[in-house]
Structure formats: structure tokens, C-alpha cells
Design goal:
The chain has one domain. By secondary structure, it is mainly alpha-helical. It starts with a helix and ends with a helix. It is globular. It is built from twelve helices and no strands. This is Flippase-like domain-containing protein. Keywords: Membrane, Transmembrane, Transmembrane helix.
Length: 308
Amino acid sequence: MNTSAVEAPLAGAPDLAGLEPVEKIKRRWPMLLGGALTLLMIGALAHELFDSGLAGLSRRLPGNPLFYIALLLYYLGPPTFDYVIFKRLWDIPLAGMAALHKKRISNEVLVGYSGEAYFYAWARQRTQMVAAPFGAVKDVTILSAIAGNAVTLAMILLAAPFGMGLLTHVQQNWVWGSIAIIVATSLPFMIFSRRVFSLPRSSLWWIFAVHCTRILTGSFLIAVAWHFALPEVSIGFWLLMAAGRLLVWRLPLVPNKEVAFATIAGVVIGQGEALSELMALIAALTLLAHVALIAGFSAHALITRNKQ
């Protein structure tokens, strides 16, 4: 019996050994993406750090320790509220706070929604925690934007009778045009919600409420921090300024948002220069916090890897 035909490989059979690296890459892409985004975060933070990012620290630092406590709570707010959401959705472990902090840092120092890409990659590496994380990450991200738009529109309705008179005709056109864009970008998600969202309706409403609470809490905490830095201005005025800041940051057609807000707030409270210095200080402290967290997370990852 001729066994050569049996022993010889079939002409059409795939080379399974050659396919193994491809399969490994497919399985490892979340880790590779997460690593790449982490390196980009480190590079972006280093660029800001050495490119006058800490110039705000040259200003006089507030002496009231309550300023730093309020600012710390404000800084920790976004990832903490995200943790509350994903704790309910996935029962995410406390270690997930590191991924959520990286998500926030990536969004701020790289490009918008790069943090969501990082967090999705992080979740994909933990299939024992969640089998299909894309739907939840997508829903939470969309609801965050809708909540921001909803709170912004509510603030506009409350502030319009008092604040429109402070704006020029061109600035008023920016506001109305921005309102139109906000409504136009939110309506499709609400009209086609059954096709867009993956989570149950009860979960969607709960997530929306958490996002609204996050936004309002953040506005309150930054107002408190401003008050402790410049106590001669009443907390009531700072709360109004926090609402104005939220409006300026969410309106898409307003150019140079930082400058625009500082200008408007300076006119209202009469301390434009002091407020600009305070903004620069907060930006520098935020950058330092980003750098410290990324350095800590990277060191922890290296130590953990060496122990394995």
C-alpha cells in the first residue's frame, strides 16, 4: 500500500502553525491598544509638563487648605461616578478605578473619546467580568453627552434672563447657534433610542441620572474651590460662575472657551486678572495630578509584571 499520499499534507490544508501568531494578535489587541494609548498619554503629559504647563504654579498659591480639598474632590469626581455606574453594570472591582482614571486622562490630554477606547480595551481583557463590553461603554458614553447637553440647556433657560445682556450681539448668535447644535445632536439618539441603546430602559435612566448628578456636583465643587481661593467673592456668585462655565464649555460654537469664560466672569465679579491666574493654577495642579497618577499606575504595572 502506498502511504506517501497519506503522509503528505493535503494541498488545500491551511498551515495551522502559521496561523497561531495571527490568532494571538487577535486575542492580544486590547492589551496592545491599551499599551499604545498609555504611551501616548505619557508623551502628551510630558509635552504639556515641559511646555509651560506648570506656569500657573508661579502664581500665589491659596493658603486655605479647604481649596485643595475641594479641588481634590472635584478632580476625583468623574472617575468616581463612572465607577458607580460600572460597578452596577459589571460589578467592576476597585482596581478598575485605575482604568477609569486613565480613561479620563486620555480624554483630556489626547483626543475626545480616546479614553473610551482605552477603557473598552481594558474591559475586553477581562472577559470573565463582562463578555461584551461594547454596548455598555457605548451607552454610558452617549448618555454622558446627552446629560451634559440637558444640564446645559437647563442652565441656559435659567441664566438667559440675567446673562444675555452681558453678551455682545455676536456672542448671542454663538449661543443660539450652539443651542441649535446641542438639540440637533441629541434628538437622533432620543428618537431612535431603541436602535441606539443596548441596555434596559431602567438602566439607561439610572445612568442618565448619575451623569446629571456628576455634572452638578462637579460644578458645585469647583465653585467651592474658587470661593476658598478668592473668599472676597461670595459663594453665590461663584455658583453662578460655575453654571456659566458649564455653559461655555458645552457650547460648540464658542471659540477660546477658557478666555471667553474668564472674560465674562471677570466682568461680573470685577477680578478678571485674579480669576485668570486662578484658572492657570488649577490647570497646573490638574496636570500635576495627571502626571502623578500615570507615573503611579505605570510603576505599579511594572512591579506587578516583575513579580509574575
